[in-house]
């Protein structure tokens, strides 16, 4: 960090577990903190120009530049090295991250992941389905992509939301997806909710499903629970009690 940089120069700050990366007003980037977790960007500093957005895993950063290219740094196994897919990372619109992997949405609606394969860094099993992707959401170790037709494609750790096969026939006309560490929940166009992933961490909403059949307006998530706001202003929660899944006390 340079003492010559003042707060008025900053436009965005992002963080890994132990490092920071700040975008300056001129589009350059300043990093500090643990060198192995992204605090040292000296080897790629000349590439960090006209940066528009930064995303992070627990140990690496990925920066989207104005030209649509991506620059990554930090722990090489956990997202800090994208050399294997660098030639595919063009016209990038958005980057999402799990704990140790990134997924980039390109302007043509395709998706390019990299990082730890156990955390979603490999989408080869579903790559042919990843077309016309509008949005990507992430749990701790899985990704869920919303396609233009409202369907969902998932990959990553199957026990943490990477396998949606049990509810795939219900995942139609999806409007929004939220995630705990180990599960996903989707709001459909009819206002109902479909959840999948680790049942204890919100992937099983059967105890409250009769309340989630319609009129859900918004979803929010903690590490282990979901909360849904209904159209009448009431609230429904499920998941781990100590993470907010039990609202009986209030």
Question: Would you mind describing this structure in some detail?
Answer:
- With 250 residues, this protein is mainly β.
- The protein is 0% helix and 41% strand.
- 48% of the residues are buried.
- The mean pLDDT is 95.
Concise overview:
The chain has 250 residues and is mainly beta. The protein has no helices and 18 strands.
Sequence-ordered SSE layout with sheet pairings:
Layout: E1 10-15, E2 19-24, E3 29-33, E4 51-56, E5 60-65, E6 70-74, E7 92-97, E8 101-106, E9 111-115, E10 133-138, E11 142-147, E12 152-156, E13 174-179, E14 183-188, E15 193-197, E16 216-221, E17 225-230, E18 235-239
Antiparallel strand pairs: 1-2, 2-3, 4-5, 5-6, 7-8, 8-9, 10-11, 11-12, 13-14, 14-15, 16-17, 17-18
What key attributes describe this structure?
250 residues, mainly beta, three-stranded antiparallel sheet
The amount of beta strand, in percent, is 35-45%
- What is the terminal-to-terminal distance? 45 Å
What is the CA-based Rg, rounded? 19 Å
Return the string of H and E elements: EEEEEEEEEEEEEEEEEE
The secondary-structure class comes to mainly beta
- Stretches with pLDDT under 50, minimum 5 residues: none
Helix content: under 10%
Q: For the largest beta sheet, what order do the strands appear in spatially?
A: 1-2-3
The profile of the biggest β sheet is: 3 strands, antiparallel
Based on Cα principal axes, name the global outline.
globular
Mean pLDDT: 95
The total count of strands amounts to 18
Q: Please count the helical segments.
A: 0
């Amino acid at each position: 960090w340079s003492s010559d940089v003042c707060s008025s120069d900053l436009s965005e700050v992002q963080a890994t577990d132990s490092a920071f990366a700040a975008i300056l007003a001129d589009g350059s980037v300043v990093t500090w903190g643990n060198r192995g977790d992204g605090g040292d960007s000296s080897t790629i500093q000349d590439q960090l120009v006209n940066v528009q957005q930064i995303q992070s895993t627990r140990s690496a950063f990925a920066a989207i530049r104005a030209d649509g290219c991506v620059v990554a740094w930090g722990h090489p196994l956990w997202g800090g090295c994208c050399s294997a897919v660098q030639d595919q990372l063009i016209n990038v619109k958005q980057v999402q991250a799990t704990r140790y992997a990134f997924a980039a949405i390109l302007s043509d609606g395709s998706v390019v992941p990299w990082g730890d394969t156990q955390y979603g860094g490999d989408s080869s099993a579903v790559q042919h389905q990843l077309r016309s992707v509008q949005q990507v959401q992430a749990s701790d170790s899985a990704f869920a992509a919303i396609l233009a037709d409202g369907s969902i494609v998932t990959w990553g750790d199957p026990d943490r939301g990477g396998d949606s096969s049990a509810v795939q026939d219900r995942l139609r006309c999806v409007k929004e997806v939220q995630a705990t560490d180990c599960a996903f929940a989707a709001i459909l166009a009819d206002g109902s909710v479909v959840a999948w992933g680790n049942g204890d961490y919100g992937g099983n909403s059967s105890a409250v499903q009769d309340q989630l059949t319609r009129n859900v307006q918004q979803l929010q998530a903690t590490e282990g629970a979901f909360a849904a706001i209904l159209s009448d202003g009431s609230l429904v929660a499920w998941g781990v009690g100590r993470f907010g899944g039990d609202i009986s006390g209030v």
